Amino acid sequence: MTANTWPGGQRHAMDQSAHSAWNANNYPGTLQLCSRCEEPTGRCEEDSIYAEGGDEAGPLCEQCWELIRPIEGEQQCSSES
Questions:
Q1: What is the extent of the structural domain holding 39?
Q2: Which residue(s) pair with 33 in the sheet?
Q3: Are both 37 and 27 inside the same structural domain?
Q4: pLDDT tens-digit map of 23-75
Q5: Are 44 and 55 members of one domain?
Q6: DSSP for 20-73?
Q7: What domain of life does the native source organism fall in (predicted)?
């Protein structure tokens, strides 16, 4: 997976036009990529999606998270099995 990069090698505040210019010339730039499909997640570190356990912890895009997340009611307590 390709890691994101920042101007000067350090994460810092940038306005939207500076982000767009940097990302256009330095893919993936500041974009966070999904650890499963390597597409942009549309999120940042503060609101990243991570799977609970498993090999594909994240960050994940919403589409990949929907594919691997447990469906509510599917998991049972060990005392119920």
A1: 32-67
A2: 40
A3: no
A4: 888 877 778 999 999 999 988 878 889 887 655 588 999 999 998 877 655 55
A5: yes
A6: HHHHHHSTTTTPPBPTTT-SB-S--GGG-B--SSSS--S-B-HHHHHHHSPPTT
A7: Bacteria
